[in-house]
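Input set for joint prediction.
Command: fold jointly, output tokens.
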Amino acid sequence: MKIINTSTLKGMIEPGTKNIKVKIGDKLYTIDLSWQKTGYGQRYFFVCPICNKRYSDLHIEGKTLKCRNCSPMNKYWGIQNSTKGGFIDITYRMLRVADKQDIKLKFPFDYTDFLFDERERKKDFRKTIRVLQALENMRVQTIFYKTTYPAKIIRLVLDDEHPFMVNYSLQDIKKYLIRWY
Ligand SMILES: [Zn+2]
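tokens >
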């Protein structure tokens, strides 16, 4: 997750400019600006494209640009120890997987929210939904049982190659806590 801050562009923006284009990685983002009068001139803020509020920094993950309050990770930022295969790790992976398919993630993840999504016709999309439901199953167990998952198991799930992902229906994966290893 990259952070873009207003201070990194100090002095480079004409007062009154309505929006700027910023290239990060190989993606071009358009960011709306909002100006505020100060004692010595004007300063600008970024406008979050989701809530339309002003912020001096925005977070970029994949194709998504948003303020900290609109990011689902917001509530976990305070937690520093991110155990591999634990709660934060699994949550981050879910965000990354969802982002690749432009899926707006809500927790807990529920595949039935996407039953009528027209992207369901695409194999990649259906795979992503399956992966997210499986990760949600794991995430719940990291919360309630403090389970941590070995990298190998997470990899199998991310690749949609864990045998349970064939043996269990999405409904089962949503309903039952599965022993993934
Ligand atoms: Zn926002």
